[in-house]
Amino acid sequence: MSTLRTINHMSSVSDYLENTLEECGGLGRFQWLLIASIIGGKISITWTTLMMSFGGAIPDWSCQWGNDTTIFQNITIESKTCHPPQNYSDLACVRKVYDDSMHTVWNLVCDRDWITQTFTTIQMGGLLVGGLIAGQVADIIGRKPAYFISMFFLLLFNLVAAFSSNWQMFAAFRFLIGLASGFYLSVFFVFVAEFMPRKYRSMIMAIPAWPIWAAAFGGVSYLIHDWKYLHIATAAVTAPFLFSWWYV
Length: 248
Prior knowledge:
This protein has 248 residues and is mainly alpha-helical. Helix content is 67%, strand content 5%. The chain is built from nine helices and two strands. Helix 2 (29-54) packs antiparallel against helix 6 (167-193) and helix 5 (143-161) packs antiparallel against helix 6.
């Protein structure tokens, strides 16, 4: 009986809130501003999530083969090969020649190629932790503060990650980026849905912002190959949507 009363109470509260939304104008100016903020702001989480797919892609590279004293320039072998050419087993890869990428900075190929995949694993670990605690934090401080705090930290961590001095520092910031992503993904849907009239809710949430911003990131990555600039670009496109705090 107590459970039934609770369900009836929750239903009446839900109906009351829906009626209040309709009386306040339904899908009005505030809702459209909120939609613009949320849909536009998805560019940050989309680019952040796809960062390692583009910024962490292994570029063309090749070895210069030699020994302790000499590099043999006339030995040719296909690119992306960690083992010496046939008949030159006594030689070693003494220098790797890259296109520009994070692999250039930290030599993330051959016996160190596991590090690149680990970045994504670490980021997903942060996302898991963020997702587990975001709901409780949002209940305490509110959906709006939790949403904009996550956006701010996505901007900050992407910006700082661009200036990582070693791969360990970069990995730490990928975890923090994942943490902020977990907060964002746990909060944004509820934040916008709570202010949408029931009859428009599913339609608004089905707007395909993710594939649009993902396609845009692919185009930007085609033009900007440097992982540092991709992080800075992600931070830059996040910044304007933080100002929507004052109108939603």
